């Protein structure tokens, strides 16, 4: 796979375009929907659904009976990063503890962006854990809100227990260019990882 030139401006998709599935994960309200919307070349699809009776038993079983409704939203978008690379973006549905219900959610995903709101670091712990568990390579994007304090990246790396080789970048999920930069960082990271893997063979 050659992703050379992946950071050139997007060009129309052609026959030899490689399609890559990318997950956009992170805690509730960290900006997943916002990022998919800001960056997508197509009008993104968002489904907001209320889990009804069908899932009530499941909810009950795993001890969340007090919650009578669970909103599930799934964001989908796509962006052509250049003439040979098309990213299909899948925002992960709400509560990470239900991810196992989404059969094949991570199947074929080449990588993920985990969005973090530095005002509420803990809300993204679970998403990071799940990426590690599912073995999906990821980068961390700190979505900057107006009242976010600026933390040294290394402090955040420590707090989230992120390995040194995993990129952590700041972004504004509302801004197309900024969101696109995050995706470029992810693709670079994936490329580096595969280069390292090749060398160590
Ligand atoms: N100021 C600011 N607000 C944001 C940003 N990203 C998202 N928001 C707002 O934060 C709220 C939650 O974002 P959303 O994308 O729905 O989060 P999700 O639950 O991860 O999908 C929305 O009201 C957004 O408008 C950002 O980068 N800056
Ligand atoms: Mg959302």
Question: Would you write up a description of this structure?
Answer:
- The structure is a single chain.
- The protein has 201 residues and is an alpha/beta fold.
- The protein has 5 helices and 7 strands.
- The protein has helices at 32-39, 53-61, 125-134, 153-160, 176-199, and strands at residues 18-26, 45-50, 71-82, 85-91, 109-116, 138-143, 168-171.
- Strand 6 (138-143), helix 4 (153-160) and strand 7 form a beta-alpha-beta unit.
- The radius of gyration is 17 Å and the shape is globular.
- The two termini are 17 Å apart.
- Mean pLDDT is 82; it is low at 1-13 and 51-71.
- The structure holds guanosine-5'-diphosphate and magnesium ion.
- The site of magnesium ion has 4 residues, from helix 1.
């Amino acid at each position: 796979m050659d992703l050379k030139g992946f950071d050139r401006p997007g060009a129309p998709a052609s026959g030899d375009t490689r399609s890559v599935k990318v997950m956009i994960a992170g805690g509730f309200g960290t900006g997943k929907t916002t990022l998919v919307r800001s960056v997508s070349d197509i009008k993104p699809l968002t489904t907001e659904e209320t889990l009804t009776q069908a899932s009530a038993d499941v909810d009950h079983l795993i001890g969340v009976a007090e919650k009578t409704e669970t909103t599930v939203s799934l964001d989908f978008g796509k962006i052509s990063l250049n003439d040979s690379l098309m990213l299909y973006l899948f925002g992960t549905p709400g509560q990470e503890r239900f991810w196992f219900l989404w059969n094949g959610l991570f199947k074929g995903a080449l990588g993920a962006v985990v969005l973090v709101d530095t005002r509420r670091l803990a809300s993204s712990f679970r998403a990071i854990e799940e990426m590690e568990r599912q073995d999906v390579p990821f980068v961390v994007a700190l979505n900057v809100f107006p009242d976010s304090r600026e933390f040294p990246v290394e402090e955040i790396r420590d707090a989230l227990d992120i390995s040194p080789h995993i990129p952590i970048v700041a972004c504004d999920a509302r801004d197309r260019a900024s969101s696109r930069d995050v995706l470029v960082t992810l693709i670079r990271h994936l490329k580096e990882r595969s280069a390292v893997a090749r060398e160590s063979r």
